[in-house]
Amino acid sequence: MARHLALSALGLVVLAVLAHGAGLDGGWVYDDHRFVERNPALATFDPAAFFLDPSTASAAGGIQHDVYRPLRTALFSVEWHLFGNAPRAWHGVSLCLHVIATLLLFRLLLPLVGRVWPAALAGAAVFAAHPAGVECVGWISSQGDLLAVVLMLLALVVLEKGGGLRTLTGTALAALACLAKESALVLPALLLLRDLALVGAEAPSRRTTWLRTGLLGAVSVGFLLWRLSVIPGLAQVAEFPGGSRLAAARGALAGLAWYARDLLWPAGFPFALHLPVPTSAFEPAVILGLGLLLTLVLAGVWGLARGRGLLALAALGALACLVPVSNVIVPLKAVVAERFLYPVLLCFAAGIAYTLTRVPASRRGWGLGVVAVGVGALVLVANDRARSWADDASLWERVLQERPSEMRAYEGLGFEYLRQGRIRDAEIAYRSYLESNPADGKSMRLLGDAFGEVAASLRLVHPEPGETTTRGGRRLARMAQLRMYGNALLTWERIGLVRGRGSEDMRRSTYVKIMEAAWDLGDLVKVKEANDALIALEGVDPTDRDAVTGGAAFATRRARLDLALKAVTSRLPRELPQDLRERRAAQRAVLLRDVSIPAQVSDAEALSKLLPLYRDLAGEEAADLHVHLKIVAILDALGQRGAAERLMEDLRREYPDHPFFTGGAR
Known about the structure:
It is built from 29 helices and no strands. By secondary structure, it is mainly alpha-helical.
């Protein structure tokens, strides 16, 4: 018997590798970039920070911090120190976690199937190979799902027998599972159902079962309360699908029907699937889902009443695993997602095992043969899906192949094309996405980046060595660049007007981009608007002319002077059309009046009037090197070269280690 079990365990390992091994060559995909690749918190292994600060879960990236999985973040940090930026090793960890979960499930099912141990093997084999697990195994960001299931199974194995030490250990494992992912909140229900499925000497006393179930329930409640305290306002992160809890309930029933189909017939590639919320309770998907719900409840109750606890575990356990992701209790960002099925697969495997235990012994070989054929088909489908997780482009191109109207795929492709430098392709992808999601600030920002990249890549006035260009060609190139910069400006500045996923950091960096593009475009008023917006982000009213000294008020006045200086020193491109030249003159007047200089003065006169204003600033903040360098530039522009050189030498002696003088800054 022991030899058979050992060979079975080895076969399960091989089966899991065959089904998911193709994902080992994958890279960082989708959320991996913010959770792992660009997450600065991983560089320092600080469990206390992971536990107390939800912002450590991901890079800023303009995303609200609505994820709290500190144990997953800690695992990521360990992997980062071990493997660095080498995703193949990370995928190896994911596969190992799935293998461990498979072996633990096999161990968990053995005492539940009595002497029919091949039934436990068949159930674990389905779990190992099922394509519904590919999203968790192939996507590094889903290591939290894998880790939570492993810890849940460990807790169930530890709590199989009585004893105070086992109770303490199992409770600790339950707490860790919740910290890996909130899907572990269902562990108390699974423990109760598993204990009721155990028979004879294997079963703990009912008192022990209820005591442990209560302890794990207290852990789940405590975790929820703690999570709400760490992420205040979490309930406002997302709205209920369809706008209400009742609509979410209809969506949950339709989702139940979809989950059942995906378990029984895992065809296609359902990543990022957008399942619409039914508008009526009489839609076929809702009626089918309700029928499935009642069937599973009745099967579970009948199983408990007839002493068939494994059936109850399969039926009621599956429903329990779907409760946290039903959107009825807490709204999520998706009605259905295949990764939500990973814990449900445990119960599905238990259902397979139960079915085989009910097959007469004379026909059990045929039953095992049918399962073997089915597992072989599952391996092929899972292997095909795993290959699509190689990179963002492969992932989203596969999604579009399955569902050409899936808008999120265009968003994902836009990001990947932008990263690869395929700017035109990125522009097309983002435009397609924003047609259906015009209020997505993050994608709007990235589309603006694409326009900006195109503008910056155009060759303008200065040809490459050996390259000849005509004046007309340069003019056309300049006009093309101006159009692209104009597109970038229109796109970027909408960030502040939409309810997208934009954060303060995103707005700040976007305004900087607007300023840079507006300088090249010659739009000084737009530069001023962006600069005022940056000042406003610091909590200062940019129109406050009564501010005299200190902090942000000083920065405000310095920015006004910098804009006025730029207005009188920057030279217009020869290719700039006459209407833009006239607009530029009007903008110059606005910026000069903003620092109390008459608009009609010449550039030289304006410089003479700016010099004492900058010197007043230098008197307030003597350590501000920026102001002193502007004074040097003005002296040089006024022809006072000697004074400019003397001041520069004084600055070099005063700031010998400053990056400006050591070559660390331009």
